[in-house]
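Appendix B, record 7
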Amino acid sequence: MRAFSVAWAFGIKYVPNLVHPADSTPPHLPLQFGAMNPNNPAHSSADTPATPSVNTSDSPADSSASAPAAAPVSPETQAALASTAHAPNSPGATHIRSFVHRRGHITQGQLAALERLMGEWSIPYAPRRLDPAAAFGRQAPTVLEIGFGMGETTEKIALARPDDNFLGVEVFNAGVGSLLRRIEDSKISNLRIIQHDAVEVVRDMIAPDSLAGVHVYFPDPWPKKRHHKRRLLQPAFVSLLASRIAPGGYIHCATDWEDYAVQMLEVLSGEPLLANTVDGYAPRPDYRPLTKFETRGLRLGHGVWDLIFKRVA
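Structure tokens (predicted):
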């Protein structure tokens, strides 16, 4: 049975003026790529599905222990958590995913945010073009972030750049719940969330030549060679992303795995619609804040590589 999105589980209806029929049949991609972030709670190379569990505090749960009993939640939220053990598929999806769901922990605060705030700040996936002006309630440059993890960086960037719209795509319930709480706590109005697989969102919902920028920060490196096929930044997906960026727009990637940085540089450099803004790797721009994980890694002598390419006409 095909899974459905959290938004559908909450009974959120598609607003007709948010999406437009696609201009043409979306290009078929041989691989499907979601995104994973080291801040995400479900990093694993195993291909077993998850049954989310609820932690009653906002501290990470011990994966070796049973989760404490949660406060009652609505049947709609329970159905949403169960259904997103697998990201929902578009018709005909046949791709390898770059994310894997296993048993995932979610705090009571994140669960409450999913319950209360999804309808206000999320956009349901639909295989039709999104109208950003209708979705955000204004005309402004739109930046897509793929795999925002727990949302720490996304929150800071959206607050620092109030004149831009930010569209975050993530599949994991804990991360979506965390960012929803940040949106409410920080009163962020220029941020929306789509909980769905990234390649389907980009392929089906983002119009060509429409994005001001794309952020892909610390995607899962899938370090084992046999898992490299699951890496997010492959030629087919980079080509699709480049087609959705407006001329003059940018794609900004960052990783703390040198082997993946080399692959990113090779793949981005091989895309004819993109041009490197520097010779090789770029210095970290001021708008990308250091996360606590990155700061700790740098303190331990680990490297971080940024890549910034611009879309050419």
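Remarks on this record: The chain has a mean pLDDT of 78. The domain at 35-311 is CATH 3.40.50.150 (Rossmann fold).
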